[in-house]
Amino acid sequence: MAAQEGEWNQVSRKRGRLRHIPTTAQKPTTGGTESYSLLGLRPNPSPEFTVSDIQRHHETACQDWQASQCWQVLQEILLAAAAAETRPTITKAICLGPGPFDPSNGSFAARRTAHIQTAAFRSIVKTIAGSQSCQEIKCIIQEPGFTQTDKDFCAELGLEVAETPGAFPMVDASTLVFGIHMELRTYHQALANLPAIFIGAGLDEWKKVIDFEPGIQDLLRSISEMDATYNKYSFPDLNYMFSSTTVYWRKSEEVEVPKSSIAV
Hints:
By secondary structure, the protein is of the alpha/beta class. It has eight helices and nine strands. The strands form two sheets. It has a seven-stranded mixed β-sheet with strand order 5-4-3-6-7-9-8, with helices on both faces. Strands 1-2 form a two-stranded antiparallel sheet. α1 (51-67) crosses α3 (108-131). The chain is globular and about 45 Å long.
């Protein structure tokens, strides 16, 4: 079954690299004939967890995330990048496709990834907000696999849930976009307007895993522009949950933000 317009394919990893999951025996492609449901990750028709259940799982994942070496290193990167006086002000943060908290395939790994990525998103936003003087950051989350219970849980976290593809046009020059292991056409939609910060698969990784075919340059246009003009930092990995992830942080139009020793 073909994916509905505005939905995205999940991206799997092979030997630490990103790849697209092909719908046939043909080579992986850059986009969109595969249904979310074919991966067993459609919205769960019979969710088992209550909001309280999800909250308990999330609290455990948050504790693990906060104690991880990944977060310790990432926090140093964020604080170094945010310390520049010329940094862009962030007013909005959008989390794309972390996965459902009560997946229909019952996968513990998928559920944990959803919680860890959401915890990472929230801690990143909190760190950046703390570097801004009384500047509130509105947080939005978009995941086509969410059940109503998932959405209710997100509301408890203070996250506004956007129905796919509603979050894409919300991106502007004051937005942080967080999307881990997304399909390239999803990035293309989300980055129609360049954000202040983008956290996702960088240009170098797409060059490794995608055959350059007609139209690919247009899909990579926004990522290519950020790669050429933004400061770039490597996002530390945690059990492949953030493999091949890059932080693109817009430079000042007047003064270039010095790169720290931890920049890529």
